[in-house]
Amino acid sequence: MAFEHTNAKGTKYYLNSKKVILRGSGREQTIYYFTRQPTENSIDSVPEGFMVVENPRTGLPVLKRE
User: How many angstroms separate the Cα of 32 from the Cα of each of 11, 14, 62?
Assistant: First the structure.
């Protein structure tokens, strides 16, 4: 089951992750992002050391380091 976050406006978002190659250095990095529908990249929990925070103006969730 994908990690689900419901914002203050009642919209559900699902946490996803993807490994990407950075252009400048060529190293691999994991990025995290939220979508309104679960995808094949959805993950089950928030990564260790992160917490979910909402943008107060738009209500969009983002991950922030603790």
Answer: 18, 10, 9
Structural domains of the chain, count:
1
Q: What is the 3-state secondary structure (H, E, C) of the chain?
A: CCCEEECCCCCEEEEEEEEEECCCCCCEEEEEEEECCCCCCECCCCCCCEEEEECCCCCCEEEEEC
Tens of pLDDT, residue by residue over 7-24, are 999 999 999 999 999 999
Task: Give residue 17's identity as a one-letter amino acid code.
Answer: S
CA torsion sign, 11 to 17 to 18 to 23?
positive
Single-letter amino acid code for the residue at 62? V
Is 63:32 a contact under the CB 8 Å cutoff? yes
pTM: 0.90
Cross-strand pairs, 53: 62
